[in-house]
Amino acid sequence: MKDADCVDFLQWVLPQLHLRWPGFRKVRRQVCKRIEHRIQELQLPDIQAYRDYLQNTQEEWRVLDGLSRVTISRFYRDKRVFAMLEQEVLPQLAEQAIACGETSLRIWSAGCASGEEPYTLSLLWAFGLHMRFPEIKLHILATDADPYLLQRARDACYAYGSIKNLPDQWIKSAFSHINSNYCLHRQFCTQVEFQQHDVRDGVPDGPFHLVLCRNLVFTYFEAPLQQAFLTHLREAMHPQGVLLLGVHERLPEGENGFSIRSARWGIYEKLLSFQGSGSG
Ligand SMILES: C[S@@+](CC[C@H](N)C(=O)[O-])C[C@H]1O[C@@H](n2cnc3c(N)ncnc32)[C@H](O)[C@@H]1O
C-alpha cells in the first residue's frame, strides 16, 4: 500500500473514531502496516475496497479501532522524566503519605503497552526509593485496551532494545537473559497489577497518588474525549495527586482542575479548589 493512500485513508477514518490525525502523522507506519494485513486477511484488492467494506460492515469499525493503536514504548522512556519522579515527585508523595499515616502509594499507568512503563517505576522504587521509604509499598495498576500487549506484560520478557536505556546495574540485577530475551525477575513484578481497560470507558477506582497517562489521550484523542477523561480522572485522584503526561503532551487550555507543576515535563497537580462540572 502506498503511504499516500494510507494517509488519505487515516485522514478519513480517524475523526470517525474520535482520534486526531496529527497524533498519528509521525508514527503512522505501524498502523498502516496493520491495515494492510487486514486488507489481505479479508482478501480485498485495495484500500478503496476496504473503505467500501467499512461503509457496509458496522462490526468492522470495532476491528479498525483495535488496529488504530500506536503501541510504541520502552523502559525508562524519557530518562529525565523518571529522574524527576525519583528525585522530586515520588519522595514528596511518600512523605505526604507518611504524614497522613498511609502505608502505600497507589499509581495508575494508563496505556501501559507491554509493561515497560510500570515496570520501570517498580525498578526505580526497588533500586532507589525503597531504602529511603521502607514503610511505603507501591501498588501499580497498569491498564491497556490491548489484551495481547497485556499478556506480553505479564510474561515480562523483552528484547534488549526495549530495556537498553536502563542503568546497566539494574539490567544485571533485575533481568535474566533467556533465549535472546531479557526476563524481569518475579520480585519486581509483584507490585504491578495488569488489567484490560479502555480509557474511553472511564477511570478505574482510585484514589491514585500518581497517574501516568503518557503518549495516549493527549496525543491521539479528540478534545471532547480528553475533557471527559479529565473529569473522570480528577474524581479518581488523591487530593494531593500528581498527573504525568508524555514529554510532548500538555493538558488542553482552560480550567480543567489541574495546575501545572512542570511545563517542561508535563507534570500537573490536582487543584483542590476546582468546582468544574462533574468534579464533585
Ligand atoms: C504509544 S503507547 C504508550 C505506552 C506508554 N504509556 C509510554 O508512554 O511509553 C499507547 C498505549 O495506549 C494503548 N491504548 C490505545 N488506545 C487505548 C484506549 N482507548 N484505552 C486504553 N489503552 C489504549 C495502546 O494499546 C498502547 O499500548
Secondary structure layout:
Elements: H1 3-13, H2 21-24, H3 28-41, H4 47-56, H5 60-67, H6 79-99, E1 104-110, H7 116-132, E2 137-144, H8 147-155, E3 157-158, H9 160-163, H10 168-174, E4 175-178, E5 181-184, E6 192-196, E7 208-213, H11 217-220, H12 223-236, E8 237-245, E9 258-262, E10 267-270
Parallel strand pairs: 1-2, 1-7, 2-6, 7-8
Antiparallel strand pairs: 3-5, 4-5, 8-10, 9-10
Helix pairs in contact: 6-7
The chain binds S-adenosylmethionine.
Residues 69-73, 77, 111, 113, 116-117, 144-146, 149, 198-200, 214-216, 246 line the site of S-adenosylmethionine (SAM).
Question: What would your notes on this structure say?
Answer:
The structure is a single chain. This protein is of the alpha/beta class and 280 residues long. It has two domains: 3-67, no CATH class; 79-270, Vaccinia Virus protein VP39 (Rossmann fold), CATH 3.40.50. Helix content is 44%, strand content 19%. The protein contains twelve helices and ten strands. The chain has helices at residues 3-13, 21-24, 28-41, 47-56, 60-67, 79-99, 116-132, 147-155, 160-163, 168-174, 217-220, 223-236, and strands at 104-110, 137-144, 157-158, 175-178, 181-184, 192-196, 208-213, 237-245, 258-262, 267-270. It has a seven-stranded mixed beta sheet. Strands 3-5-4 form a three-stranded antiparallel beta sheet. A hairpin with a 2-residue loop joins strand 4 and strand 5. Helix 6 crosses helix 7 (116-132). The longest helix has 21 residues, at 79-99. The radius of gyration is 20 Å and the shape is globular. It starts with a helix and ends in a 10-residue tail after the last strand. It binds S-adenosylmethionine. Residues 69-73, 77, 111, 113, 116-117, 144-146, 149, 198-200, 214-216, 246 line the site of S-adenosylmethionine (SAM).
